[in-house]
Amino acid sequence: MRAWLTQSLDAFRLQTPAQIAASLAYEQAARFAGLELQQRDSWEASAALLQNALAEGDAAWHIFMECDLLRLEKRADAILLTDRAIFVLEFKMGAQKPDLADLRQSDNYAMDLHDFHAGSRGVPIIPILVAPGAPQRGLALPLFWHGVVPVMVANGAMLREIIARAQAAIPPPAQAIDAQAWARSAYRPVPSVLEAARLLYRRNAVPDIGATRADAHNLTRTTDAIARVIAKAREEGGRYVVFVTGIPGAGKTLCGLNLVFGALREAGAAFLSGNVPLVTVLREALARDAAPQGGAAFQVAERAARTALQNVHRFLEHHVIRADEIPEARIIVFDEAQRAWDQAQATRDGQRRKSHLTLSEPAHTLEIMARHDGWAVIVALIGNGQEINTGEAGLAEWGRVIAAAPSWRAVAAPRSITAADPAQRLAEGAAPWLAFDDSLDL
Fold first, then answer.
1. What angle (nearest 5°) sits at the alpha carbon of residue 307, between those of residues 99 and 280?
2. pLDDT, tens digit (0-9, with 9 covering 90-100), for 137-190
3. DSSP 300
4. Closest CA to 182 of 113, 89, 128
5. What's the predicted TM-score (pTM) here?
6. Three-state DSSP class for 63?
7. Which domains does the chain have, with CATH numbers?
């Protein structure tokens, strides 16, 4: 969990709303995103509203504003952490009557904390949609439990009462929430979400996933070869990169998805791709297939799809920032791994984002997965015969970083060292860290 502004309530109340808005504007500028005057005014108004609502709150409570949920590619407006509860606040400053989309957004942020953030388990999570223009009305509090309660809507006057009454209704915990420990907590999908993601895939009938020139025999042969390497890694406590090669349309993506949702489902494997449109389309397709009628069921399905299908750049950024965090999966499938960024591209600042990477993406991937005590496996899907563009590392960078990492070995098909383009070759001939298996070529 990373927030642009993190303060105790005592420190938060000592600043003016303008100072708080300026701090947030500075953080946004550091991320190379343009700042609109309307956004600054909205932050200032939100800060003033919060200060008024929390005038009598405990000084030890903590405020987090603009909270990045990096792995989920989302950002919540504000989170209030008390000694016993998590209040997730979404501000709609100009809304007179919040619509269904606003309510779902607030609910999704709260559910995401519960489903993906380890520090938010076993704690009441209270989503509040704050709309200053909403009409005043009577307040009926839900029953609180260790989970997410239904979204409550508050105007400026009601926010103080909702927080005060909710706080009073929740029994004091045996141990108060530690704000620093909570902020450091790891990304950890709950088992039910992982299982839901697997169900999504088992039920899918998405042509984009099923369209492949690979026959069932070849997919089974390749899957069995990967399984043998994983079994060897488990037995030895070793670390392996398994390279699966094939021309476009050969079935590499299908093979990777079959691994994550099929053969490797018990290992909690994750499918990572830098192809943002692919990730978006697959998430949407899987969720639509699981919940064709939409509504709340679709929101649950879409959240489950995000667990299994992740943006590889956000995965790496998250773990580079959180250098002490061990990935939740011992096995990752890296789609189109030949397009992983080289060091120059990985460390380059973008127009809207500051890079936190210091190495190439293959190098960071090995370092992150090596944080596991014992075995780990990276399944790298490689598209053969495709041009390597500027900023893309190709197989050569993967070979370089594996050769430089004594704890890592690789298994690949022989074609991984025979390409005409040096950037497409894993090594210049045989290497002590490299073993061959013909079955890894689709």
1. 65
2. 767 776 666 688 888 888 888 899 999 999 998 988 888 999 999 998 887 766
3. H
4. 113
5. 0.64
6. strand
7. 2-184 (no CATH), 191-440 (3.40.50.300)
